[in-house]
Input
Amino acid sequence: MCHYCGCREIPLIKEFIAEHESVTDTAGDALRALDHGEPGRAGELVARMRRELLAHWQGEEEGLFAVVGGDAEYTDYIDALVREHRELASFLDRVDLRRAEDVVQLREAVDELHRHIAKEEDGLFPASLTALSGDEWDRSMAAWRAAHPGAPGDLGRS
Output
């Protein structure tokens, strides 16, 4: 991700980035478990990855995506990101790590997840700095909180 626009300092963006890092770490651990012949451990990690992503996507889609996507300039970009969420969710719902072809697809899905995250962190997040008003940030943060009911309640407060 870029470090020049300042979006990394926005509390909501910090949370999204932390979630990206957590889920990619979990995905990497799952792939390493497969490489070490531990499909059971890999399955547990893929299940964790799926749970993390579902909450993350809910927070993004019902908040930041909904707000930014209301601007026609960003609609196609947001729609593509949502499609990618749905494709990965569908795969994670049916993946069977006992099948060699699913293991190959998981590796491809993790690579695609990294590309997807770059689209958000290098495109959407910096654009949100100029695209959102204070009320829209509040709406986005409220959606993140709703998707993360056990999280600390100080998001957005310094």
The helical segments are 11-35, 39-69, 75-94, 100-131, 134-147. The chain is about 75% helix and 0% strand.
